[in-house]
Specification:
about 120 residues, globular, mainly alpha, Methane Monooxygenase Hydroxylase, Chain G, domain 1, single chain
Length: about 120
């Protein structure tokens, strides 16, 4: 588990660094990858206080991931030109909206399940 925590911290550090540089397209997948490792760590954590602290961090990272998704979607919309691209963008934003809700719901469900363990 310590390896997973170390890997999660390493990746989240890279994500934050890219985020600070406003390299959102690079930060987004790093946050996703780090959350995968944090999920493993929270799942196997025995100490309730540590589990709660990690869960709070995960929620914060999920919030940031959702925010970055909105930024990236807006950037993509601004780059599109023409009526066909506008139509595709509106369809894509609907899908993206559903996807961003899914991220939150998935991690909320995950956190609630592991708090009960």
């Amino acid at each position: 588990m310590n390896d997973n925590l170390a890997r999660a911290k390493e990746i989240i550090s890279q994500a934050i660094q890219q985020d600070d540089l406003k390299e959102y397209d690079k930060a987004f997948p790093l946050y996703q990858r780090a959350l995968e490792f944090f999920a493993i760590v929270v799942k196997h954590e025995k100490n309730p206080k540590t589990k709660e602290m990690l869960s709070q961090r995960v929620v914060g990272y999920v919030d940031r991931l959702e925010h970055l998704k909105k930024i990236l979607d807006q950037t993509k919309k601004e780059e599109k030109v023409g009526e066909v691209d506008k139509l595709k963008g509106s369809l894509g934003s609907s899908f993206t909206y559903c996807f961003s809700i899914s991220i939150r719901e998935l991690f909320t469900f995950f956190l609630l399940m592991f708090k009960k363990m």
